[in-house]
């Protein structure tokens, strides 16, 4: 695995656009974990990700602290519909006269989020599900199903790239060479230069690797990770992508080898992964500090374990 330079930028310029990092943690867990982004052009304002429902006031305050408001938004882009990325969409759309762009496979679950909420409650666990809050229904007229290719909002030109693996309804966005990968490239703790997989239940690891290879062909010069910040530099981004593929394969191999010993005990696997994956050492204190990151690692180990059971 390849460690990255420690970074924690608040904004970057992408051509004639400015992209601002926004806080979107749930109000009960301010852990510097979930980020939304505001793309600011001369005329257009585009929000990427909303964060969970219980982060709505946090997101709103973060926008206002940078001199903007939800009423100014011209569009919302969602990489996927999981609660930490899109759970606050219903509240956001009540305040902006705009539409949200979502993968076609995710659209119906925003209109009726009952199954989405049920699955999230099982996967996240009670504490984190309650911290995020359930998604609320969104009017179908406010949603636009994406297709791969070009999308334009005012002067903001977006390339939509469908990237299944983490979820079948996952997509990434490229804006002037700046990549918004959602969870396709794992979670990057930018101020530690380390990252972990995002492989919850129903992740298809082989498909996720195919999607990473697809994103590598775009050769972005920077990435805005929903978890948890900007990484700048083409070489850094390509190294992280290659490192994420290696990391996925390392976690997969370790869990496959240890499945008879550890069975369903995710913390047993974590002990072995700390030996196999040197990046986990850099995240030791973060795993103690951030319940959201720790829960994500738990879900990722469990997801790969379940994937191993299916393919072995």
UniProtKB/TrEMBL annotation:
This is Beta-lactamase domain protein. SMART domains: Lactamase_B. It comes from the Archaea. Gene3D superfamilies: Ribonuclease Z/Hydroxyacylglutathione hydrolase-like (3.60.15.10). Residues 33-227 form the Metallo-beta-lactamase domain. CDD domains: ST1585-like_MBL-fold. It comes from Ignicoccus hospitalis (strain KIN4/I / DSM 18386 / JCM 14125).
């Amino acid at each position: 695995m390849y460690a990255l330079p420690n970074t924690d930028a608040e904004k970057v310029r992408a051509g004639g656009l400015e992209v601002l990092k926004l806080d979107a943690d749930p109000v009960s867990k301010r852990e510097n974990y979930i980020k939304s982004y505001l793309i600011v052009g001369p005329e257009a304002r585009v929000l990427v990700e909303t964060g969970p429902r219980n982060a709505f006031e946090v997101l709103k305050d973060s926008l206002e602290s940078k001199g903007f408001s939800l009423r100014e938004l011209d569009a919302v882009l969602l990489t996927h519909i999981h609660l930490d990325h899109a759970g606050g969409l219903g509240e956001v759309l009540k305040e902006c006269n705009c539409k949200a762009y979502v993968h076609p496979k995710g659209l119906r679950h925003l209109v009726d989020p009952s199954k989405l909420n049920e699955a999230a409650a099982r996967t996240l666990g009670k504490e984190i599900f309650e911290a995020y809050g359930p998604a609320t229904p969104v009017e179908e007229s406010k949603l636009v199903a994406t297709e791969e290719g070009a999308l334009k909002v005012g002067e903001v030109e977006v390339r939509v790239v469908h990237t299944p693996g983490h979820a079948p309804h996952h997509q990434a966005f490229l804006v002037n060479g700046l990549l918004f990968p959602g969870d396709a490239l794992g979670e990057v703790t930018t101020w530690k230069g380390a990252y972990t997989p995002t492989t919850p239940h129903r992740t298809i690891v082989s498909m996720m690797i195919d999607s990473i290879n697809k994103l590598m062909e775009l050769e972005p010069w920077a990435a805005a990770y929903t978890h948890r910040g900007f990484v700048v530099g083409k070489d850094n981004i390509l190294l992280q992508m290659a490192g994420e593929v290696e990391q996925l394969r390392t976690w997969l191999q370790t869990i496959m080898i240890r499945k008879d010993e550890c069975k369903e005990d995710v913390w047993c696997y974590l002990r072995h992964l700390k030996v196999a994956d040197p990046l986990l050492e850099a995240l030791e204190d973060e795993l103690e500090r951030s319940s959201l990151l720790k829960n994500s690692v738990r879900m990722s180990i469990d997801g790969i374990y379940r994937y191993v059971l299916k393919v072995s």
